[in-house]
Amino acid sequence: MESQLVANKTYCFENCDILFHQNSIQENGFDKNLAFEEIRDIAIYNRCPIIVKNGSGKWYLKGFMKEIDDIKTAIMKNKNQYKGKMLYFIDFSQFQ
């Protein structure tokens, strides 16, 4: 049986962002009219553990191929530093 990527939990951080531009998918952002469930499915498909919704409502996927410890450190450093932004961290686990 082939292993598949599963998102166990999603954590939400208000007023937070991570500036991982070189590890972003769709640098111009995704349509603000997408539902959270839709953008979360896109993030899981693209193996991006970070979803950010900016102040104007656009969605951004970040953290592709980034070390989880680096992501966690950046989240803790940037909590409450970016007013009007919402960051979602997807906890990925491997199942076989």
Element layout with pairings:
Layout: E1 4-14, E2 25-30, H1 36-45, E3 50-53, E4 59-62, H2 68-78, E5 86-95
Antiparallel strand pairs: 1-5, 2-4, 3-4, 3-5
Quick description:
With about 100 residues, this protein is α+β, with helices and mostly antiparallel strands. The protein has two helices and five strands, in the order E-E-H-E-E-H-E.
Q: How would you characterize this protein structure?
A:
The chain is an alpha+beta fold. It contains 2 helices and 5 strands, in the order ββαββαβ. The protein has helices at residues 36-45, 68-78; strands at 4-14, 25-30, 50-53, 59-62, 86-95. A 5-stranded antiparallel sheet has the order 1-5-3-4-2, with helices on one face. A hairpin with a 5-residue loop joins strand 3 and strand 4.
Gyration radius (Cα, Å) is: 13 Å
SSE class: alpha+beta
Helix content: 10-25%
| CA-CA gap between termini | 7 Å
Q: Order of strands across the widest beta sheet?
A: 1-5-3-4-2
Percent strand equals 35-45%
Shape: globular
- Succession of helices and strands: EEHEEHE
Enumerate the spans where pLDDT stays under 50 for 5 or more consecutive residues.
none
What does the largest sheet look like? 5 strands, antiparallel
Mean pLDDT: 85
Total beta strands: 5
The DSSP helix count reads: 2
Q: Could you list some keywords that capture this structure?
A:
single chain; 2 helices; 96 residues; 22% helix; alpha+beta; 5-stranded antiparallel sheet; 5 strands
